[in-house]
Amino acid sequence: MPENLQGSERYEAADAAVDNMSSAVDALDEAISSIESAQEQQRRTYQ
After folding, report:
1. What is the per-residue pLDDT across 3-13, written as a single tens digit (0 to 9) for each?
2. 38 in helix, strand or coil?
3. N or C: which end of the chain has fewer CB within 10 A?
């Protein structure tokens, strides 16, 4: 981010968006892991 934007409303909005996207990625990673675990359990159940 350019230095002249630091502390501005645009900077704060962009920073918040980055934080939100990072949280969303973390949540998706957890969801993927949960789905993979469920699939593995299902495979073991039906073998």
Report:
1. 777 889 999 99
2. helix
3. C
Q: Which residues contact residue 11 at a Cβ distance below 8 angstroms, ignoring those fewer than 6 apart?
A: 1, 5
Q: How many residues does the chain have?
A: 47
Give the closest residue to 5 by CA, choosing from 24, 13, 19: 13
Task: Give pTM, 2 decimals.
Answer: 0.75
- Assess contact for 5 and 11: CB atoms under 8 A: yes
User: Given CA atoms 13, 18, 19, 25 in this order, what sign does their dihedral have?
Assistant: positive
Chain mean pLDDT for the chain: 93
